[in-house]
Amino acid sequence: MGALFLPVFSCKCEDESSRQPAKRWRYEILMTTTTPAFKRVLLKLSGEALAANQGFGVETARIHEVAAELADVHKLGVQLAIVVGGGNFFRGVAHQAKDMDRVSADHMGMLATVINALALQDALEKQGVYTRVQTAIEMNQVAEPFIRRRAIRHLEKGRIVIFAGGTGNPYFSTDTAASLRAMEIKADAILKATKVDGIYDADPMTVDGAKKFNHISYMDVLRLGLKVMDSTAISLCKDNNLPIIVFNLNHRGNIRRVVLGEKIGSRVSAQGASAGE
Asked: Which pLDDT belongs to residue 26?
């Protein structure tokens, strides 16, 4: 929360020489809640979030809704990077790839993330936000290659950067790519957008009475086998003390609320708490 000094014109008194209303200014202090809690964040978006209810591909209305929310966050002055998945087109570990070589399937999944990144870039630029896509696999005709210093410079200039192509290596998920890129750009936190409002000890969509963790440690996530992010991504965050905030993307305005420091969703850090706390 920050203080905003607002000048207000007042004419209640008169100037003694001209007997005309004198211009007097008084300053009112208005308390605002638009001070971000983070300077630089990395948002992890799943491909399914862009498909909405159609289940496959990119749903036009949904991607523009997400872009509008991201533009709203960008206006706060937050440096925003995004890692997007590709599960709405192809996933290397999905049933559709069961008879394929794992390396080839993962490469196809990487290309799916590039499709999503380009679609999101287009939607963001229609919101008036300058956006750059960087890919882990070079494809210079459609996007920049990932160069760490260039990515940081884009962020410093007020552009949104979308990282596509995962890590560029098979056997690594886009969750791991999000953890890696977040540390490379020195992000303050990873914001993990999901379809539920935090981390539970069981799937709240199928298990009645599943308990929510408002705050949990990296070690407890690994020990309990919670499906927040894959174990490689969690371990990477743990080793570098990078906090993860898990929240529901389907509630409009939640990205802004998280960035402003509101206590929504679940937080993963070195110090954890019990379920329901």
From this structure: 44
Confidence (pLDDT) at 103: 93
Place of tokens 């007042």: 10
Q: Which pLDDT score, from 0 to 100, does residue 92 have?
A: 65
- Domain ranges for the chain: 1-32, 36-269
Q: Between the CA of residue 11 and those of 17, 20, 26, 114, what are the distances in Å?
A: 16, 9, 11, 60
Are 250 and 193 spatial neighbours (Cβ–Cβ below 8 Å)? no
* 233-247 exposure pattern, b = at least 16 Cβ within 10 A, e = fewer: bbbbbbeeebbbbbb
Helix (H) or strand (E) holding 219, with range, is helix 218-224
Q: How far is CA 242 from CA 29, 85, 117, 125, 218, in A?
A: 35, 20, 24, 29, 10
pLDDT value, residue 55:
82
> pTM of the prediction?
0.85
Give CA–CA dist 24/30, Å, rounded: 19
Strand partners, 161: 81, 132
Tell which CATH architecture fits domain 36-269: 3-Layer(aba) Sandwich (3.40)
Single-letter amino acid code for the residue at 153: R
Q: Which residue has the tokens 């708490």?
A: 273
